Amino acid sequence: MAAADDDDDGDDAPPGLPAGTPFYMTPAGHAALQEELTRLWSQDRPKVVEIVSWAASLGDRSENADYQYGKRRLREIDRRVRFLRKRLERVQVVDPAAQPRRDQVFFGATVTYAREDDSEVTITIVGVDETDLDRGHISWVSPMARALLKARVGDLLRVRTPGGLEEIEVVSIRYPVAG
Known about the structure:
This protein is of the alpha/beta class. It has 3 helices and 7 strands. It has helices at 27-56, 65-90, 143-148; strands at 23-25, 91-93, 110-114, 120-126, 137-139, 156-161, 164-174. A 5-stranded mixed beta sheet has the order 5-4-3-7-6. The longest helix is centred in the N-terminal third of the chain and has 30 residues, at 27-56.
């Protein structure tokens, strides 16, 4: 009865990355995935199992909404748990605070750059699963991050954006302080 997509945890590589590409993540991103896995496995799943067991004990399962919803939610939780476990097996945690070369843009850097219209944008380069545009966190495989990698303050870069080719200038590069 299981659908083919029930076991679809994604390929071995994160979205947008070819198989075999390193899967980088900051310590904070790694901790967030670990926390989600722990919550799903030790809190959410047992509650749903309890509801499904109770609903199953009522008899007719075909018209039992608690049972139907609970089974569906259990499959979602199990799918996410499999995904997180696979992800956490492959992750390479990179601590930006330990970056010895702070004069260049590498994974974990917070970069401020000036656009052609003289506005400034600040972004932090993070792992694929840590992307949050509202907070300025962009994936290290995004076109902007790829253009910025290895750049130094003062470098002028041409970046392809949705609005076309744009020239930007790196204004500052920061890394978290160790400890």
